[in-house]
Amino acid sequence: MSVLSWLYVAGVALVGVPIFLHMIRRTPHGKVPFSTLMFLQPSPPRMTHRSRIEHWLLLLLRALAVVLIALAFARPYWRETEQQTLARGGRRVALLIDVSASLQRKGMWAQSQERVTHVLKDLGSEDSLAVFTFDTALASVLRFDDWDQLAADARRPVLDERLKTLAPNWKGTDLGHALSEAVAAVAERGSGKQPKSVELVVISDFQQGGRIESLQQFQWPDGIVVRPEFLKANTENNAGLHVAASLSREDVKARIENSIDATAERFAIGGEAVGNATAEVPSQQDAVIPPGQSRVLKVGEIDSSTAWRVTLSGDDEPFDNTVWVSKAAPRRVTVAYYGNDSADDPKALRYFLERAFLPTPEREVEFLAYAAGQPVLAGDRPVLVFVVAPQESSVLQTLGKQIEDGLRVVVIARDDEMTRLAVALAGHEPVEVSEAKVSNYAMLTNVDFEHPLFSEFSDAKLADFTKLPIWKHRAVDARALKGGRVLAQFDGESSLPALVELPRGSGSVIVSLFGWHGDDSRFVLWSKFVPMVNHLLTHSLGSAPQPRGLMVGDRLPLALGVKDCVIKLPSGETRTVAASEAFHTTEPGLYVVTASDAEPSVWAVNLDPLESRTTPLRLDELKSLGLPLTDMAAASTDEERRQLQSRELEERQKYWQWLISAGIVVLMLETWLAGRTAYQQSAAMQG
Amino acid sequence: MTQTAAPTARYIEPKALMRIRSLELRVKAVMEGFVTGLHRSPFHGFSVEFTEYRQFSNGDDPRFLDWKVVARSDRYYIKRFEDETNLRCHLLVDNSRSMSYGSGTFAKADYAKTLAACLAYSLSQQRDAVGLVLFDEKVEDQLPARFRHGHLRQILVALERATGGQSTNLVEPLERVASQVRKRGLVVLISDLLAPTTGLERALTALSSCGHELVVFQTLDPRELDFGFESAALFVDQESGRELYVDPATSRDHYKRRLDAHLSELRTICEKLGAIYHLVPTDMPLEILLGEFFTESQRLKSRGRQSRRSTGGARST
User: Where would a tag sit more exposed on chain A, N or C end, judged by fewer CB atoms within 10 A?
Assistant: First the structure.
């Protein structure tokens, strides 16, 4: 047994007070006022005959009350034995290890491993452990179930084996996402055992660029506590170098960000051209940047055949001091249009679609229109296809094959026949189609904002679909479209589908059950039309638009339908990537992508700029985000940790409540007994 | 001629007397029947006892010229009479905190005030001038010796108003009276005199040397005289607040010895100075005390008159 406040144990000494009062002489009863003491002399104190204790029981009760109350104030607790820990079923500890790029700093990973060892050392035999790593995503190393299924003596070797493979990578950090994912992963119940509280031990540098803000809205389930283990950097100065956006395609600008707690202010940037010795190189520049501020410098002008490596010098941490710049030529993509409209007819859909796809730095769109009966060119590999008129079966077969390979086709069904065509194109069973009876007009509702067609408008400010009246549309039972994803519905009681995506192979067919122009609706004149189709195209290209350039972890934008694609990694290795296979970058540098029938393209992949914000968050900032931190979070030394553990133990056991209750009971007994004794004495005297 | 009041056999017990809250009523209760025939009738005029003739000289008041002698002998003589009624009496009443002690239902101060009031009343009735000095460690209130309408009432009010003071310091008030009252008169000191006697002798000597007649009433509670406490207790000095654990069983003899020594010392001082000393336990009926006092004062007066006649001297008015 141990106590939290040893000082209060000294209060037990007060037990002597009742004994002392019991034994000592009685002081004179009261005071007698007298006119003068000038003739009086002090009398020696007269001792009472209390050489022995008269009321043993009373004295014992009083002493017991004092002891109980003193012990309650001392807040005793039992150090739990192995058996008791067993009875509680052990703890559940989820270990989250930061492996983001900021851990590439000097000594950080070694420190992280040391903390991991420390956490593992604290584990009891009945404790359950899960280990995760996180950067921009959470990855499981060991699950609770795995741990529980392993034999007790096999756990550590297996875990050590897995931990050995861990190393910091070059990705950014999304701590908020990692924590919420980890909570979802550990909140599930253990195998057959009662659900228990889980302690999330997060070993991280808790950098300000860790994207933890998303946790503000997170609802923490009961029983989850977070214990942050802060890794401290050995160096003070860290400045980050990143590519800044520029208006011109040729201008290359770099942003230098100095950390808030830095002491260095003078930096220099320089660079070199990679792979082309004769190309123009970035200019050498010096910059003075006070702590916590950033500055954008123009590095130079780059042409499309060159790649640059720009470096920063002047700070202590080199991990974020290099950026790669390449100016890849815009990608040529083809959008096919199957319809019989004239290019100059403003009443036709083609007129609007052809003008909707504007060139961007990343891509140039070639719009190919095929009239009915016109053969499809073998070399054309469209990314997106619009079908607005009935086609011959050969065309449909070709399209069907391409859909199987990943093509996305949009069919605008202005009549029942086109609806059936769309369903057939998707390889779906025929469905019953009819012309819907629309009173006045219909509107789009129940929009699926997770689909790329609408994801741009998920913000509440943009999610207004009431300004698109649809006067005519087709009615198809959504239940008949098995496997189809309803992207939007018409309003009304029957909730008929308005836009449906039907998957086929790697691709899909998006069926619009209303016309986009003419009598059906004014969809093409709607303000959302152009961004909607452009976003659909970008998504069909296989990558989201990257105005910031490619970051480590992003998917390389490979051309669709390319069968053999050879990627040369920054490390010099080469990888062959099959068609429609995604390739995610793993390190910063230049990736050279060589397709079988196209020119090699060079992609510069850089660090997440937020990784340079290495200033650690404070504990109170974590608290303000609503993290359910344990008390242990505030402890920095082993002694403080031990004290906090003791306090936790005491708060759980709460023996003081029992002691206080017992003390009160004893005092009540004492009062009763004292009253009874006094009454008996007075009765005896009177008698 | 003066008549001594015959003490009646039935006195009012001080305990019963002090139940009367009003000091004036208390005085009247005591004095009723006591004063009858005690002094000369005030209606006999200014004075009847002829002393001598003296030749008129410049500065004398012509009112006192004996016109019959002027008519008869054509000489200017002043007729002088014995000063009987214009006795100046100063009542010095101790109002220190020690006077607030009382083992019974009343304090020594109540008794002392009643005694002073009775004296003032009685003397006023005799057309004597009465003054009052209330003191503790300093003079609290002072009324000059006068005989005029309402003065007695002022004295009674002052006595009644007086609240308990601090410690007893006899020297300063007595010296102050000695310095202020130049005319010879009667000084009555009413106090418990529970203070060191060293300064007291000096102050009383100063008064006596000014020609004042001195009467000392030492009022003490019966409990102060016999120390009749039974159980041991913490005794608290009312003046200083000092506490002392005293067991009466063991301390009583010592207390009495020291008190007796103090009282005899006081008595010796008074005898030496020709002062009349009265030890007054507060359970003594006031009538007895007043009877003794007036008897004594008449004796003193007549003795003084005889001595003056025999020496041919006269007290100036």
Answer: C
Please list every residue in chain B whose beta carbon sits closer than 8 Å to the beta carbon of residue A41.
Answer: 246, 251, 254
A578-591: average pLDDT: 82
Specify whether the CB–CB gap between A297 and A285 falls below 8 A.
Answer: yes
Position A611 in a domain:
no
Cβ of B235 within 8 Å of Cβ of A40? The answer is yes
ipTM for this prediction: 0.76
pLDDT band of B4, cuts 50, 70, 90: very low
Provide the shortest C-alpha distance from residue A79 to chain B (in Å). 55
Point out the domain boundary residue: A279, A313, A329: A329
Name the closest residue on chain A to residue B242, using Cα atoms.
Answer: A37
**Chain A within 8 Å of B54 (Cβ-Cβ)?**
no
B229 and A CB contact within 8 Å: yes
Nearest CA in chain A to B108: A35
CATH number for B14-40+85-311 (one of 3.30.56.10, 3.30.70.20, 3.40.50.410, 3.40.720.10): it is 3.40.50.410
Residues A207 and A321 in one domain: no
Q: Contact, A472 vs A515, CB < 8 A? A: yes
Can you tell me which residue has the tokens 């406040």?
A: A5
Please tell me which residue, A268 or B49, carries the higher pLDDT value: A268
Alpha-helical regions (H) of A107-174: 108-121, 144-149, 152-164
Provide the residue range defining the domain that includes A660: 2-79+654-686
B262 touching A (Cβ < 8 Å): yes
Cα separation, A122 vs A425, in Å, equals 61
pLDDT at A510 exceeding the cut of 60: yes
Q: Is residue A84 part of a domain?
A: no
The alpha-carbon gap from B274 to the nearest alpha carbon of chain A, in Å, equals: 27
Nearest to A532 by CA among A460, A588, A449, A645: A449
**What is the pLDDT of chain A when averaged over all its residues?**
83
